[in-house]
Q: What sequence folds into this?
């Protein structure tokens, strides 16, 4: 048995959670407080058998991989005068820690 | 030293927490965000000596075991016409993971 | 790789978080719900290489050590009649658990 801690971008949080649940994994989602440095993250705890760790990591990775995205941006040239254009930003990404479980009980 | 992660139904959360604290255990309660799939759970982190793990599991189990409960329900037979009757639902339940602590510091 | 769980007094939470981040550590801050018994705590999860565990513990300890503080207090002698004086209280303190990480992935 393993306990997996996955810290994912809040943008990908519900997609990751849905994908894991659909595959039958038990997912607990912890609230992450919005400090300025760590805002925008969600921490998941997933308990699973040793042989399914790869599958969990694959699912998390597939749904939260770092990628670039075009988002609207704008520059102001003065009062009421601005130009809007798309810029490329990096979104997503996940950090995953797998720890060993010595004992597991369901009551 | 062990670190125990106990995920219990929110219904049982304060009873479990009170019971553990009364027995002298240090309990940290993490907020679980209310996603539709995992609403209603509370995660506890409990650090304890190896020989007290059984006691922690017993306390959590005793106060959060899966059980059935009769709750009021109602069926509507038309506008303003309904029948109220009790139905049996399953409540409670806990999932407990015990992990090993390599180093423990209190400052 | 280690995963460190540090439970610190909420008073010291932002100072600890800033100090760890300044030294390049990845810190995830979990919201702790305010039960009467465990209000006032913040839980951090810090993933780090084995050889930096000491540094993490030092930083947490330095910024959250138990210490005494003088705070204003007052005793009432009747309606509208009271005396204000400082009393010494203990603040801060942290509990730190280091657990082993079997596998670490960044995606
Ligand atoms: Ni998918
Ligand atoms: Ni009891
Ligand atoms: Ni400092």
A:
């Amino acid at each position: 048995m393993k306990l997996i801690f996955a810290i994912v971008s809040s943008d990908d949080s519900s997609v990751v959670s849905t994908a894991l649940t659909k595959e039958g994994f038990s997912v607990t989602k912890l609230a992450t407080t919005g400090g300025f440095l760590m805002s925008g993250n969600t921490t998941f705890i997933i308990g699973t058998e040793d042989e399914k760790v790869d599958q969990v990591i694959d699912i998390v990775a597939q749904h939260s991989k770092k990628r670039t995205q075009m988002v609207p941006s704008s520059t102001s040239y003065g009062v009421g005068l601005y130009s809007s254009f798309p810029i490329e930003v990096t979104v997503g990404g996940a950090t995953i820690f797998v720890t060993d479980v010595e004992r597991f009980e369901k009551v």
